[in-house]
User: Which sequence fits this backbone?
C-alpha cells in the first residue's frame, strides 16, 4: 500500500475518523492495529518478524531493569509469541496463508512456543536475580541486539554472502552451487524497525530511557505505520513519550500536516516518478551510453532520490502530525552542503545520527587520534552503505563517503588557508557546487546496477569526450514544469534555515503558485508510479 | 477558527487560479479539438480527451476526411494498399501483424526485391486481429509463405475487440472478433462494426451507441465507460489529466492481471493465444502456404512468449523466429524512443526471416 495510492487514502481516512472519536488508550490500539494491517498489506507473513522482535525486545528491556515482566505484560507478550508463530508457519507454507489448513498443527506449535517462551521468561527471572545489575543489563542488551541483528543479517544479507561465497569458492574450483538455492525474501522495512529496536535497547541499557511498561505502547513505537517501511528511524526518547501521553490535535496541526503531505506528494509524484523513467533509460540499459547520458541521468537521479525519500518523509511527518505526533525531520536541504560533514548532518539525519551514536562513538569516535578516527569513519560509513542494501555498489558508496569524510578531516587539520576563506560567500557557493558534483558521483555508485556498470560509466566519464549523443528519455512535460517550483521551495527552506513551506507573498500570488502546482500535479498523475526507493531497504 | 479564516482565501484562490490556467491553456493554446497530427506538446494535453470525441474528430464527416490512424487495421484498407511487383516474384510472402512486422517486411523488400511481400496489419495489433486478417485473406491472393507476428505487449489484446480500448491515448478505430476456447475449440464473437463508415453512423446515433457500449462492456476487458464517454471533462485540461491518469491506471491494472513478474499469468490469454496459433498453422498448411511465426519480445517483455508458443512450434517443426535469440530487450539501445526496434535490428530480423524462408521453401521443394 503506497502512500500515493487510492487504497492508502481510503485506509487513512477510515483510521483517522475513528482516531478522532475514540479515547487516548484506544487511539494507541487503533494505531497499532492499523500499523499491522498496513504492514500486512505488503506481506502478511512477515508480521511474524516484527511481532517476534517486539516480544523479545520488550522482554529484554524490562529484564534489564525490572527483573520481571509482571503478569499482564507476560500474558500479552506470550500472545505476541503465539501470533508470531502462526505467521511464521504461514511463511513456511508459502505465498498464501490458508488459515483453515493450518488448523491443529499450527495451534500445537503456537502453544508450544508460548510455553517455551513462558519457560524462558521464568528461568530468566530466576537466573537474572542471581546476577549483578551490570551483568544482567549486559546480558539482556546483548540478547536483544543479537536477536535483531541476527534477523536483519539473515533476511537481508544471507543471499548476498552466500552468492559471493559461491563465486569465490567456484573460482577456487570448489563446487558449492547448491548453497545458493535458498532464496530469502527481504521483508519490507526491516532495516528501519530493527534499528529502532536496537536503539531502544541500547538507550535503556545506558539509562537514557525507562523501558516501556505497556507492551502495546512499545509495539506501536516499533510498528508505527507512517515511518514503518521507510523511516525516519525515530528514537524511542523522542517518539515513545509522545505515544505514552495523551495528544491534542489543533487545527494548525492538521493544516501543517496537510501542507507537508501535499508537498511530499508533489515531490514524489511530480518530480521523483517523473524522472524515474529518464534515469532508468540509461542505468537499466545494457548497451553503451555517452558521457552526456551518464551526466544527465546521474544528475536526474540525484534529484530523484532526494525527492523520493524526502517526499516520503514529508508525507510520513504530515500523516503523523494529523495524529498529533511529531516525528523527527530527516532532511535539511542536504544539497546545499559544502562539506561532507555538513552533508551527513542534513541527509537522512535519522540514520546518520544513529550511526554516530551507536557505531561511530562506541568504536571510539575521534577520541583516539587521527588514524583511529579515519578507521572508525571508514567502518561506520561502509556499514552505513551496507545497511542500504546487500550489494557491492552500496558498500562502495559508503566507502566513498567515508573517504570524503576522512579527506575533509585531513584538510581541516592541515589547511589553515581554507579556514580564512571559508566565510566568503563566493567560496561558499563554489564549494557547495563542487561538493554537489562530488555527491552526484556518489549517487552514480549507488544507482549502478552492477560493479561492471560502475567501472564502464566511470571510464566514459574520464575518457568519453567526443561522443555527446543524448539518448536519455526526456522527462514528462509536467515534471519539467514542476522542477522550478521544487527548486523555489528548496531554496526558500535553505535560506530561511527552517522547514517551512510558507511564503510571505500576497495571497493572490500564493494562490497562483498553488493553483499552477495543483495543475502540474494532475498532469503528473499519469507518470508511471514507482515504488519508493528506500522501501527496498 | 482564525487559522481556518486565514487558509480559506488561499484555498479558494488556488482553485480559482487553477480554473483560470485551465481555461487560458485550453482557449488560447491547446484548443478543444482533437488532431493527432499536431505537436507532441499539444498531444500531451489531448491524451485525456474521451475516446468517443477523438474518434468523432478522426473519422471526419466522410471516409475521405479520415485520419491515417483510423484507416489502419481494417482488412479492406490493408488489402487495397498492397501492390505486388508487376514483375517476377520468386515467392509471395504475406505478413499478418503490426508495425513491428511491417518494419521487418520493409527491410525484407529492400534486401530481397524478388520476394513479394504483402502486409496486412494494424497498429499494435493483437494475435486475434492477425488471425482474423488471415481468415479474411484466405480467398485472396495465395501466399507461398504466411507469416504471423505475435507482439508480447499486445498479447493481452486477445481480451479485447478493438484498438480503442487498451490504447485509449491514441485509439484506432478497427474492430476484430473476441475469441474464446470452449472444449478445445475456438469460438468467436464478431464485433458489430466492420468499417469506419459504420462506426461513424453508430457514434451519431445514441441508441446504437448504447448498444455498442453494452457490447464493449461485455466483450472487451479493457473497455472503460469513463474513458470512452464524451462529457464536459473534454473541455478542461485538468479533467483531461485526471481522466488520462485514471485510464492508465485502469489499463495497467488489467495488464497486471495478465502479465506479472516477467511472464504471462492469465490462463485465458495463454489458451486462446495457443489455439489461435494452432489454428493459423493448420489453415496455412491446408492453403498450401508455409507458416512462419515471429515472436516479438518487445521492451519490458524479455523472452515471455517463447514458453507459451515455443514448445508447440518446435514440436511440429513450424518455422519460428524469436527476437530474444537476436535482440536483448533489456538493452534500451536496441529500441527507438517510440518502442520499436532500431533499424539495425529490423534488418537483422529481416535477414533471419529470409534465411528461414529459403530453408523452408527448399525443404518443401525437396518433398
Assistant:
Amino acid at each position: 500500500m503506497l502512500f500515493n495510492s487510492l487504497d492508502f487514502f481510503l485506509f487513512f481516512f477510515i483510521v483517522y475518523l475513528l482516531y478522532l472519536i475514540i479515547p487516548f488508550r484506544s487511539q494507541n490500539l487503533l494505531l497499532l492495529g492499523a500499523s499491522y494491517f498496513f504492514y500486512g498489506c505488503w506481506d502478511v507473513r512477515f508480521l511474524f518478524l516484527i511481532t517476534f522482535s517486539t516480544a523479545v525486545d520488550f522482554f529484554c528491556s524490562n529484564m534489564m531493569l525490572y527483573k520481571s515482566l509482571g503478569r499482564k505484560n507476560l500474558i500479552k507478550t506470550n500472545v505476541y509469541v503465539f501470533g508470531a508463530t502462526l505467521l511464521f508457519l504461514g511463511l513456511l507454507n508459502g505465498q498464501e496463508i490458508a488459515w483453515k489448513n493450518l488448523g491443529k498443527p499450527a495451534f500445537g506449535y503456537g502453544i508450544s512456543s508460548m510455553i517455551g517462551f513462558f519457560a524462558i521468561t521464568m528461568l530468566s527471572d530466576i537466573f537474572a536475580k542471581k546476577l549483578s545489575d551490570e551483568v544482567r543489563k549486559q546480558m539482556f542488551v546483548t540478547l536483544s541486539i543479537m536477536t535483531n541483528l541476527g534477523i536483519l543479517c539473515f533476511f537481508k544479507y544471507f543471499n548476498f554472502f552466500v552468492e559471493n561465497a559461491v563465486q569465490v569458492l567456484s573460482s577456487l574450483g570448489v563446487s558449492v552451487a547448491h548453497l545458493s538455492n535458498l532464496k530469502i525474501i527481504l521483508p519490507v522495512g526491516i532495516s528501519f524497525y530493527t534499528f529502532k529496536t536496537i536503539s531502544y535497547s541500547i538507550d535503556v541499557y545506558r539509562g537514557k530511557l525507562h523501558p516501556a511498561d505497556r507492551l502495546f505502547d512499545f509495539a506501536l513505537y516499533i510498528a508505527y505505520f507512517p515511518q514503518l517501511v521507510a523511516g525516519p528511524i525515530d528514537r524511542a526518547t523522542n517518539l515513545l513519550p509522545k505515544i505514552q501521553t495523551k495528544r491534542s490535535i489543533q487545527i494548525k496541526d492538521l493544516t501543517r500536516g496537510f501542507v507537508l503531505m501535499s508537498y511530499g506528494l508533489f515531490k514524489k509524484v511530480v518530480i521523483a516518478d517523473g524522472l524515474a523513467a529518464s534515469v532508468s533509460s540509461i542505468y537499466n540499459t545494457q548497451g553503451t551510453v555517452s558521457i552526456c547520458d551518464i551526466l544527465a541521468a546521474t544528475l536526474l537521479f540525484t534529484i530523484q532520490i532526494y525527492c523520493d525519500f524526502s517526499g516520503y518523509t514529508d508525507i510520513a511527518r504530515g500523516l503523523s502530525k494529523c495524529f498529533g505526533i511529531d516525528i523527527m525531520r530527516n532532511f535539511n536541504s542536504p544539497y546545499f552542503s559544502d562539506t561532507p560533514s555538513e552533508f551527513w548532518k542534513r541527509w537522512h539525519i535519522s540514520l546518520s545520527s544513529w550511526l554516530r551514536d551507536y557505531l561511530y562513538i562506541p568504536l571510539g569516535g575521534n577520541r583516539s587520534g587521527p588514524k583511529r578516527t579515519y578507521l572508525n569513519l571508514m567502518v561506520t560509513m561502509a556499514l552505513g552503505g551496507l545497511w542500504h542494501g546487500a550489494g557491492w555498489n552500496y558498500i562502495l558508496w559508503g566507502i566513498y563517503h567515508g573517504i570524503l569524510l576522512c579527506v575533509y578531516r585531513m584538510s581541516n587539520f592541515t589547511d589553515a588557508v581554507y579556514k580564512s576563506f571559508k566565510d566568503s560567500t563566493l567560496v561558499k557557493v563554489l564549494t557547495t557546487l563542487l561538493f554537489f558534483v562530488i555527491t552526484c558521483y556518489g549517487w552514480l555508485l549507488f544507482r549502478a546496477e552492477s560493479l561492471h556498470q560502475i567501472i564502464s560509466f566511470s571510464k566514459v566519464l574520464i575518457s568519453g569526450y567526443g561522443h555527446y549523443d543524448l539518448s536519455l528519455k526526456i522527462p514528462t512535460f509536467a515534471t519539467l514544469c514542476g522542477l522550478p517550483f521544487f527548486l523555489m521551495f528548496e531554496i526558500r527552506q535553505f535560506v530561511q534555515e527552517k522547514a517551512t513551506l510558507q511564503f510571505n507573498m500576497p495571497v493572490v500570488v500564493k494562490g497562483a503558485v498553488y493553483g499552477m502546482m495543483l495543475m502540474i500535479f494532475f498532469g503528473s498523475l499519469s507518470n508511471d508510479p514507482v515504488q519508493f526507493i528506500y522501501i527496498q531497504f | 477558527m482564525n487559522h481556518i479564516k486565514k487558509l480559506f482565501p488561499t484555498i479558494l484562490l488556488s482553485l480559482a487560479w487553477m480554473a483560470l490556467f485551465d481555461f487560458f491553456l485550453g482557449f488560447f493554446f491547446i484548443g478543444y479539438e482533437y488532431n493527432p497530427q499536431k505537436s507532441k506538446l499539444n498531444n500531451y494535453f489531448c491524451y485525456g480527451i474521451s475516446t468517443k470525441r477523438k474518434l468523432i474528430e478522426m473519422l471526419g464527416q466522410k471516409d475521405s476526411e479520415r485520419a491515417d490512424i483510423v484507416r489502419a487495421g481494417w482488412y479492406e484498407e490493408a488489402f487495397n494498399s498492397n501492390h505486388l511487383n508487376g514483375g517476377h516474384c520468386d515467392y509471395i510472402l504475406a505478413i499478418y501483424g503490426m508495425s513491428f512486422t511491417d518494419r521487418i517486411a520493409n527491410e525484407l523488400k529492400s534486401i530481397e526485391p524478388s520476394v513479394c511481400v504483402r502486409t496486412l496489419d494494424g497498429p499494435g495489433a493483437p494475435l486475434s486481429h492477425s488471425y482474423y486478417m488471415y481468415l479474411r485473406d484466405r480467398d485472396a491472393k495465395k501466399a507461398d509463405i504466411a507469416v504471423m507476428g505475435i507482439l508480447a505487449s499486445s498479447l493481452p489484446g486477445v481480451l479485447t475487440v478493438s484498438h480503442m480500448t487498451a490504447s485509449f491515448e491514441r485509439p484506432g478505430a478497427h474492430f476484430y472478433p473476441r475469441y474464446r476456447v470452449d472444449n478445445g475449440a475456438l469460438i468467436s464473437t464478431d464485433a458489430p462494426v466492420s468499417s469506419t463508415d459504420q462506426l461513424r453512423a453508430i457514434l451519431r446515433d445514441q441508441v446504437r451507441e448504447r448498444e455498442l457500449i453494452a457490447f464493449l462492456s461485455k466483450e472487451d476487458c479493457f473497455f472503460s465507460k469513463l474513458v470512452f464517454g464524451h462529457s464536459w471533462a473534454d473541455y478542461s485540461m485538468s479533467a483531461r489529466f485526471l481522466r488520462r491518469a485514471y485510464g492508465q491506471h485502469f489499463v495497467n491494472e488489467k495488464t497486471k492481471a495478465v502479465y506479472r513478474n516477467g511472464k504471462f499469468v492469465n490462463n485465458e490469454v495463454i489458451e486462446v493465444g495457443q489455439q489461435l496459433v494452432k489454428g493459423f498453422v493448420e489453415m496455412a498448411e491446408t492453403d498450401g502456404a508455409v507458416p512462419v511465426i515471429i515472436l516479438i519480445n518487445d521492451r519490458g517483455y524479455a523472452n515471455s512468449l517463447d514458453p507459451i508458443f515455443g514448445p508447440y512450434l518446435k514440436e511440429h517443426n513450424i518455422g519460428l523466429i524469436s527476437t530474444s535469440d537476436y535482440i536483448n530487450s533489456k538493452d534500451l539501445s536496441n529500441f527507438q524512443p517510440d518502442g520499436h526496434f532500431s533499424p539495425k535490428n529490423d534488418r537483422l530480423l529481416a535477414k533471419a526471416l529470409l534465411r528461414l524462408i529459403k530453408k523452408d521453401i527448399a525443404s518443401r521443394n525437396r518433398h
